[in-house]
Design brief:
Largest sheet: 8 strands, antiparallel
Strand order of the largest sheet: 12-13-14-15-19-18-17-16
Oligomer: single chain
Structural class: alpha+beta
Radius of gyration: 38 Å
């Protein structure tokens, strides 16, 4: 059997001054014999200084590059092998592969040359001593120095793996330590691209440092190099190899008895964590080894490969980012503080909702089912007694009425009008049709205007919160029957009563408002609103062939929408232009950056695929949960449309991620540590939990700030009408709304980081980019505000915390904070548990508390909240 002892190969030896202990390392002597004597000139450029070493793959000389006036190492094939095609191919492969890897801990390869028919390559000359020689001379390295050397080996090996290159011959003899103490991985003579190794090439290497799967000829992967890495670290720490075998069968047997190895018996003060990671590297089954060299480095004490990469001016890989950062659990005291902020803030936001929201101030006494029943009663009273094939309903704000109240006076008491059902600030609408209603737009739900009312027999009603008629619109028959007898006059008194109006308090008037459909009779009345006698009321109505086709209660605020659009102020127009220009610029910039990164292989495609796929699946789920469905052929088209929109949004998020992620990884890598771990499946990672918990606390704080801003602005503007009313229609619509705000959080993340990146690129200084970012965000929030001082202070505070969340904590914290804030701002909330919508209004609170509880659980990693630091 062949001897499995390692044969050291060194590309350089000379004076070394690495300070391991107080003792000074002495230089080793150069080998004396070689093909070229000192002083020999090669290729008219390289002057031989001396032979550095010989090995199975050739000779290595130290030479002086006279062109650049620097020392280099020249590697030549053994004599007689220059004409061997296989050797030449391997030689070319070594150069080609080694040049793909550029890292301070990997020996740089410069170029290929030829002299007297012999090929040679020039590479970095490392003035030092190989690790194998050093260990034979001093035994083992002290713990702190051993960890430092091991981390640098991990960094160099990770750089090779990041390019898809496997070393396959990692051993102490192929690791150099120069005079400054830097570690350099040498000799890529056996290196190869991971997916190009097959056949007998699998077994190439030094048997003593080969993994079990290599020795068996099964495969060679990244985890095979990890096995060699574990052997090297074991030797660095203990001064000896873990396996003392003389024959190959003996070595194979020992490799499968790794549980018998005990490093602590050799090194008494060895950190148990170090021994655990080495034993994991030496696991016989590759699946049980660490997934990457960076994972090994992260497990070593004091390691920070991310900081090392940034110091070297490199862009860390996603795997390096995930392996870096903190791993310690959150202190219970801070978890409790965040929990209290979340709980108290959520309750505060719910308490303020009763004053700062139109929905909470409106008298929503009847649930949707009761209002639907009232609507059917009104329809029957109007003569529409046919059973419909389809119905739809919902709530909406009367924005014209709210604008009227805003301009009425400056007293906050004017908002008490919202609490009166008539005229209504919140309107219930109901539609019925003799056909299935299929929306034509991009919405999967029937709305007040989609599909348009074009089918004969379609009826649209609007009721106030008490179920009283507010407006009616019907589509008359498309085809008349000339032989039909004249219809009886419409009993307008019944409709007026359905609207809660007393005909005796109204006087006839000349009709002014025309219906959108044909009518043969038009009537009108004038009076005042029963619940607001100071404001004039006009009632317009029309009928066709004895059935009402139009009925509307008109106040001073009612606009003729078919004649004109609402006037847009100069400030609103300027804001729209700015936002549109900003959106177009961001889209174009993101697309160009994504294309640039994709072509150069710089983006995290795996992460982009995961995020894009998640958004795609979320949009499909939203169309299923929150959409209207019918057993018609149109359902297929609706499904395909939903998938198309889901693909569009998923692709947009994919493009944004590919555009943004490489630059964040380059300039703010710590901002995506927990994000990268989460995408890799680390849902219970303590760092992920910490960032989620902080994100929930920030989001709740922003929600409270928004509510306070609305509260202090009630004298100048109306309560918030930004709250979605769709959740009031039932649990599935509430669930769809809660999930539906998620993609918006991702979009805001990309927009904010892209803006910050562009500012940094243009302004060149990070602090100046931060100032402009804060000013831009604060300025946008103040457009159209009536309380510049108060809102300005609150907007700046929010902008400052947003910047901190982005740069200090990163993606996870920012996305969670934006999501939680959006949930608290746009979804129904209430502390009045007696109202019929209390269940759906509690759902956002439950979601926020659930996310916070998950974050706290993961951040604490099983630790009890009752710890000494709390007492």
């Amino acid at each position: 059997m062949p001897d499995v002892s390692p044969q050291p190969k060194s590309s350089g030896s000379g004076e070394s001054q690495m300070s391991m202990t107080a003792a000074r390392m002495q230089s080793t002597r150069l080998p004396k014999s070689g093909r070229f004597a000192p002083g020999t000139m090669l290729a008219g450029r390289y002057q031989i200084v001396g032979l550095l070493g010989k090995g199975g793959m050739g000779e290595v000389y130290r030479a002086n590059d006279l062109t650049l006036d620097q020392d280099v190492a020249l590697k030549l094939l053994p004599e007689g092998m220059g004409s061997n095609p296989a050797m030449l191919s391997r030689f070319h492969g070594e150069v080609r592969i080694a040049r793909q890897v550029s890292h301070p801990n990997v020996c740089r390869v410069y170029d290929l040359g030829e002299v007297d028919g012999q090929m040679f390559l020039s590479m970095e000359y490392v003035d030092g001593e190989d690790l194998g020689s050093l260990l034979r001379r001093i035994g083992r390295l002290p713990g702190d120095k051993a960890a430092e050397v091991a981390r640098k080996i991990c960094a160099g090996l990770a750089a090779a793996h990041d390019k898809g290159v496997l070393h396959r011959d990692l051993k102490p003899a192929n690791v150099m330590i120069n005079g400054e103490g830097n570690v350099v991985i040498m000799d890529f003579g056996l290196a190869a691209v991971a997916d190009q190794i097959e056949g007998q090439e699998i077994k190439a290497g030094t048997p003593a440092y080969m993994s079990p799967e290599q020795l068996a000829g099964r495969e060679v992967t990244v985890r095979s190099d990890i096995y060699g890495l574990g052997l090297v670290i074991h030797e660095i720490l203990t001064g000896k190899r873990p396996f003392d075998a003389k024959t190959l069968p003996e070595l194979i047997a020992q490799q499968h008895q790794v549980d018998r190895i005990s490093m602590s018996t050799t090194v008494k003060d060895l950190d148990p964590a170090v021994e655990r990671v080495v034993m994991r590297c030496l696991a016989p089954d590759p699946k049980n080894r660490p997934a990457s060299a960076l994972a090994v480095a992260a497990a070593l004490p004091g390691g920070d490969p991310l900081a090392a990469a940034l110091a070297a001016g490199e862009t860390p890989s996603p795997e390096m980012v995930a392996a870096s950062g903190q791993s310690a659990v959150m202190r219970p005291i801070w978890a409790v503080v965040c929990g209290l902020v979340i709980l108290c803030g959520a309750i505060t936001a719910m308490a303020l909702a009763s004053t700062t929201r139109v929905m909470n101030r409106a008298p929503l006494e009847l649930p949707p089912d009761a209002l639907a029943y009232k609507a059917r009663e009104v329809a029957a009273a109007a003569g529409y007694t046919e059973k419909p094939a389809d119905t739809a309903s919902g709530f909406l704000y009367d924005q014209d009425y709210l604008q009227f109240l805003t301009k009425l006076n400056n007293s906050p008491s004017r908002w008490s009008r919202i609490g009166v059902a008539q005229p209504p600030a919140v309107v219930y609408w109901f539609r019925q049709s003799p056909r299935i209603m299929n929306p034509l737009g991009d919405n999967s739900r029937v709305s007040l205007a989609d599909p348009p009312a074009l089918v004969s027999g379609m009826l649209t009603l609007q009721l106030d919160p008490k179920g009283r008629l507010y407006s009616l619109s019907a589509v008359p028959p498309q085809l008349d029957d000339p032989a039909a007898p004249p219809a009886a006059p419409v009993n307008w008194t019944a409709l007026l009563a359905s609207a809660g109006l007393d005909p005796a308090r109204l006087k006839p008037a000349t009709p002014k408002w025309t219906p959108a459909t044909i009518a043969d009779t038009r009537v009108a009345w004038e009076g005042t609103w029963p619940d607001w006698p100071e404001q004039p009321l006009r009632v317009e109505a029309a009928s066709y062939r004895g059935r009402p086709v139009y009925f509307d209660l008109i106040g001073p605020w009612t606009r003729p929408e078919r004649m004109q659009a609402r006037a847009v102020s100069a400030a609103e127009r300027a804001t729209l232009v700015i936002l549109l220009s900003f959106a177009v610029g961001m889209l174009l910039g993101a697309a160009l950056l994504a294309r640039y990164n994709f072509k150069r292989g710089r983006g995290d495609r795996s992460g982009a695929n995961r995020v894009g796929s998640a958004v795609f699946l979320l949009f499909v789920a939203l169309s299923i949960i929150g959409g209207e469905h019918s057993a018609t052929a149109h359902e297929v088209a609706r499904l395909l449309t939903s998938i198309a929109y889901a693909l569009l949004f998923g692709a947009a998020i994919w493009v944004g991620y590919m555009a943004l992620e490489p630059y964040v990884r380059r300039h703010w890598p710590r901002a995506i540590v927990s994000w990268t771990r989460l995408l890799a499946g680390g849902i219970n990672d303590p760092l992920v939990g910490r960032d989620v918990l902080i994100g929930v606390a920030l989001g709740v704080t922003w929600g409270v700030v928004t509510a306070v801003s609305h509260y202090t602005s009630l004298s100048a503007g109306p309560p918030s009408a930004a709250v979605l009313l769709q959740p009031l229609m039932g649990f599935r619509f509430a669930l769809a709304s809660i999930l539906g705000v998620g993609p918006g959080s991702l979009i805001q993340l990309f927009v904010s980081f892209l803006l910050l990146f562009f500012l940094r690129m243009v302004l060149r200084k990070e602090w100046l980019a931060a100032v402009v970012f804060l000013a831009a965000f604060t300025g946008l929030q103040l457009v159209g505000t009536q309380s510049i001082v108060t809102d300005g202070a609150l907007s700046f505070a929010v902008a400052l915390t947003i910047y901190a969340a982005m740069t200090l904590f990163g993606f996870v914290t920012f996305v969670v904070a934006v999501y939680v804030n959006t949930v608290l701002v746009v979804l129904p909330l209430t502390l009045d548990f007696s109202v019929w919508y209390a269940g759906v209004a509690l759902a956002p609170l439950v979601m926020v508390l659930a996310i916070g509880a998950y974050g706290m659980h993961a951040a604490l990693a099983g630790r009890s909240l009752i710890q000494d630091d709390l007492l």
